[in-house]
């Protein structure tokens, strides 16, 4: 299934199209009658892979409580680049066992995937009403309204589904205390599905490359009860999945790197891809990310590898960096919105606003390293401030990002990291849900 998708030219997260002949060499694929297909020769490794898939499906069906003759129903909600590729991977791995699994995907209209992915559904109620596993492939900005609608369909439901969210984005809520709201929390609020049955999957990957079966890895984050079996179920030879119990922090970090990817794209375009300028930007943006991470989690060192890897690939080849480049080149403007046909939603734009609004709250003030006075956290994040002025307030041009880097008053990024490493910096309420905050 994934290989067959290469016959259709389609845009992905990096803003480029996938060629019908990409990856058509020495990778276990053949072209037949113009269609790019997997080899069907039953080699010993292929037989072992098929047996392994059947075993994984049987194990997961047992955990969900499926009886013989009742297929495991998996539904993707939203058919953007990553959501579509993710569902196509499951179709490739398990779709041939039709008596044991049914895989569908919902989107508002049947477009380029309609003839390639099986069971494309345009009626949301039909798609989700009896689903055992729901995959949220929607942008974070669309997650709440769509799942509120789904929640209405599930009011009379007797069984509780498992939800895997792929969305990377956040909202800021300012009452009863300033805190971040993630897509999994939005889904929980909208559907009343217990939070231990809602998980987040993220990692350093680009949809178009996974679509071409490049090796990649990801983490499924959430309750161990479902995280461990889902990691086994989702794992494939070219896609390693690990389990991690830290749901919200990984989810927030997935949104944070999109913020700085936009700035990276601007710097690349404005400096004609200067490696030196991009490295200066990388030093400052990562120090801001370290600073923000220390505000959000008590053990930020556990996030260092995953966050840096996800940031690296997003700065190299993500849609947010592409957007920053286009804005700097004058081909796009902030007032044109954050959703573009063929590219999807640029989730970094809403994340800029969310993180800025959150970190400008006086109740979160911290000590300034040079002035030795209390300041709002965003005062220590000049790049975030600049992106807010460019994209949200629209009072500055993209050249302001270079001005911020060249500001003589900009101090060594190492200093910001040293400040952040103060154990008193951690603000646990930033990741608290409204219900928890009400109970305090």
From TrEMBL:
Domain Glycerol-3-phosphate dehydrogenase NAD-dependent C-terminal: 246-401
Spans through the membrane: none
Source superkingdom: Eukaryota
Domain Glycerol-3-phosphate dehydrogenase NAD-dependent N-terminal, chain residue ranges per copy: 76-218
Protein name, as recorded: Glycerol-3-phosphate dehydrogenase [NAD(+)]
Pfam family, one: NAD_Gly3P_dh_N
EC number: 1.1.1.8
UniProt keyword annotations, A-Z: NAD, Oxidoreductase
GO biological processes: carbohydrate metabolic process; glycerol-3-phosphate catabolic process
Classification via InterPro entries: 6-PGluconate_DH-like_C_sf (IPR008927), 6PGD_dom2 (IPR013328), G3P_DH_NAD-dep (IPR006168), G3P_DH_NAD-dep_C (IPR006109), G3P_DH_NAD-dep_N (IPR011128), NAD(P)-bd_dom_sf (IPR036291)
EC class name: oxidoreductase
Family: Belongs to the NAD-dependent glycerol-3-phosphate dehydrogenase family.
Coiled coil (UniProt feature): none
GO CC annotation terms, alphabetical: cytosol
Keyword flag Nucleotide-binding: no
Reaction catalyzed: sn-glycerol 3-phosphate + NAD(+) = dihydroxyacetone phosphate + NADH + H(+)
GO MF terms held by the record: glycerol-3-phosphate dehydrogenase (NAD+) activity; NAD binding
């Amino acid at each position: 299934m994934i290989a067959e998708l290469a016959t259709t030219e389609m845009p992905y997260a990096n803003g480029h199209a996938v060629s019908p002949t990409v990856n058509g060499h020495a990778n276990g694929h053949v072209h037949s009658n113009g269609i790019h297909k997997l080899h069907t020769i039953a080699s010993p490794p292929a037989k072992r892979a098929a047996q392994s898939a059947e075993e994984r499906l049987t194990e997961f069906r047992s955990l969900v409580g499926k009886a013989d003759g009742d297929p495991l129903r998996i539904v993707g909600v939203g058919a953007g680049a990553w959501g579509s590729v993710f569902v196509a991977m499951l179709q490739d791995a398990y779709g041939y066992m039709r008596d044991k699994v049914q895989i569908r995907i919902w989107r508002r209209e049947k477009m380029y995937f309609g003839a390639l992915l099986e069971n494309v559904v345009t009626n949301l109620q039909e798609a989700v009403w009896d689903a055992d596993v729901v995959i949220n492939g929607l942008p974070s900005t669309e997650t709440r309204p769509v799942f509120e609608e789904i929640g209405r369909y599930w009011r009379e439901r007797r069984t509780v589904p498992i939800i895997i969210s792929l969305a990377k984005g956040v909202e800021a809520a300012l009452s009863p205390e300033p805190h971040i709201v993630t897509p999994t929390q939005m889904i929980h609020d909208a559907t009343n599905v217990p939070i231990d049955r809602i998980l987040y999957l993220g990692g350093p990957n680009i949809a178009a490359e996974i679509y071409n079966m490049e090796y990649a890895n990801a983490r499924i984050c959430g309750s161990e009860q479902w995280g461990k079996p889902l990691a086994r179920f989702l794992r494939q030879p070219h896609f390693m999945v690990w389990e991690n119990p830290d749901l919200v922090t990984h989810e927030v970090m997935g949104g944070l790197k999109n913020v700085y990817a936009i700035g990276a794209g601007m710097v690349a375009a404005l400096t004609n891809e200067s490696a030196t300028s991009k490295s200066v930007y990388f030093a400052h943006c990562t120090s801001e990310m370290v600073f923000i991470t220390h505000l959000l989690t008590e053990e930020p060192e556990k996030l260092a590898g995953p966050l840096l890897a996800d940031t690296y690939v997003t700065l190299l080849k993500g849609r947010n960096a592409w957007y920053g480049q286009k804005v700097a080149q004058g081909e796009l403007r902030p007032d044109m919105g954050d959703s573009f046909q063929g590219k999807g939603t640029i989730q970094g734009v809403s994340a800029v606003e969310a993180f800025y609004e959150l970190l400008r709250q006086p109740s979160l003030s911290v000590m300034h390293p040079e002035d030795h006075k209390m300041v709002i956290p965003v005062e220590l994040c000049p790049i975030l401030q600049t992106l807010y002025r460019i994209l949200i307030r629209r009072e500055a041009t993209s050249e302001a990002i270079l001005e911020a880097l060249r500001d003589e008053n900009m101090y060594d990024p190492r200093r910001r990291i040293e400040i952040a490493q103060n154990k008193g910096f951690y603000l646990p309420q930033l990741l608290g849900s409204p219900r928890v905050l009400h109970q305090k």
